[in-house]
Amino acid sequence: MKTALVCGAGGFIGSHLVTALKRERFWVRGVDLKYPEFGQTAADDFIVADLRNPSSCTAAVDRRFDEVYQLAADMGGAGYVFTGDNDADIMHNSASINLNVVDACYKRNVGRVFYSSSACIYPARNQRDPDNPNCKESSAYPAAPDSEYGWEKLFSERLYLAFKRNHGIECRIGRYHNVFGPEGTWTGGKEKAPAALCRKVAEARNGSTIELWGDGSQTRSFLYVDECIKATLLLMRSDFEGPVNIGSEEMVSINALARTITRIAGKSLDIRHIPGPVGVRGRTSHNGLIREKLGWAPSAPLQAGLRPTYAWIAQQVERARGCNVRRAAE
Ligand code: NAD
Fold first, then answer.
1. pTM above 0.90, yes or no
2. Index of the ligand 1 atom closest to the CA of residue 76
3. From the candidates 149, 160, 224, 310, which is the catalytic residue?
């Protein structure tokens, strides 16, 4: 039986990845600071541990796993990453995790390590035009990410590649672009744009107004979590090491995203633009390399993933409302 370790298995993508690996009949260990928030983990073994701690990391990587997926990171949406208030934590926490994980994997001679990098590594200078951003893999250098989160991701990409060069560790690096779907963070400050907008729309009364950060003309693309998992597994089992974009090329403005979600909800809502952290003006995946090397592209349009995501978040909103009403009555 093949074995896999998923670091960050209590998180959004990590918990979906564990389920996919179980479907493939892997024996799976998950490790995270916490269990998944919205359901049971499918992992055979789950260790609650802090990967910033080298000894916890050594304990988690206690054998020669066939596959290790490193998704643990201190991360969040624009409200967490782009305000500047969390920069020291983001850099120190995530760098510590990666330094420990790569070393533990090397010492156990694991089969292969996947590292989840991000579109945030791309230079700010190529993302000023909302209609024409450049996020080709080859544009990453000279480096100039617009956030410390992006700089840490770039540092860690280089860390895994240095271990490959000097110690022969097999690594695969995917640069995720805005992944969304059910069972992701949808409230509390670390949620990203699709989840935050689904929540705002679900909470709004028909005919009322929702607030958007910035003027809403900033553009992004969004990848449904099932597509992300498929691409991750494909990259992991291929001979191509990356770094390679894992994202969608269907670029939309945040205003358009809000309108689409409002339509899915069957509501009529106005939008008020308010000041807030927005990140770069334009960003979308460039999929030339992944198409060439892996023959992969997303299989469905954005709308297809937004429907189940909205339905799930609307259900969470209803549940939270029910709890508040019960609490008020007590
Ligand atoms: P997530 O926040 O849901 O998952 C990350 C998990 O890491 C969390 O469960 C968290 O508890 C865990 N973690 C944090 N610090 C830890 C520590 N010290 N020890 C152990 N576990 C720790 O995020 P996600 O959306 O599932 O993202 C997974 C990975 O993909 C992250 O590395 C993220 O940077 C990267 N990524 C995600 C996106 C996206 O759109 N979701 C985009 C680009 C890159």
1. yes
2. 2
3. 149
